[in-house]
Write a structure and sequence with these properties.
154 residues, single chain, mainly alpha, 10 helices, 3% strand, two-stranded antiparallel sheet, 50% helix, 2 strands
């Protein structure tokens, strides 16, 4: 049984490293946290707080680092967890370079500096699939559906 667990853990770490290799890992100073995002985007922060992503896993920081790859925001498995939940930057990218108000007013510049724009259904599906398409995770009803459904309501 221990041998099976070791092989499974090895496979998960390998999968996480392959996923991480596809995206740049930001340094700790690059991450702001969801509260900082919410200071300018309060509606989005409220809508996010109503989702399962905001709840995270109670002991994600105590488990294997590979779990934090999908269940937290930060640099896992290669570095620290910034938030033990799937925060704003888990989907939109580490925000320090694009979060300044003057940059955010210029969408093209914000994207150039790292903002991952998720307005298009295909873009959302690609970002969501990076975790929801992984082994042992069920896909949500529609990967291209809005991540903040409360924002879609009048």
């Amino acid at each position: 049984m221990a041998s099976v667990r070791r092989r499974l853990r090895g496979a998960l770490v390998a999968a996480a490293l392959v996923c991480a290799a596809g995206s740049a890992l930001a340094a700790r100073r690059d991450w702001l946290g969801s509260a900082a995002c919410g200071s300018c985007h309060p509606r989005q922060l409220r809508a996010w707080r109503a989702t399962a992503h905001a709840r995270g896993l109670p002991r994600v920081e105590e488990g294997p680092a590979v779990c934090a790859l999908c269940h937290a925001t930060g640099e896992a498995p290669a570095g620290p967890t910034i938030e033990a939940q799937v925060g704003c930057e888990a989907c939109h990218g580490a925000g320090a370079d694009y979060a300044a108000e003057d940059v955010m007013r210029n969408p093209a510049l914000a994207r150039e500096l790292g903002l991952v724009e998720l307005g298009a259904p295909a873009a959302r599906a690609a970002v969501c699939a990076s975790c929801h398409g992984a082994v042992a995770l069920g896909a949500p009803p529609a990967l291209s559906a809005p991540a903040h459904p409360a924002l879609e309501q009048p």
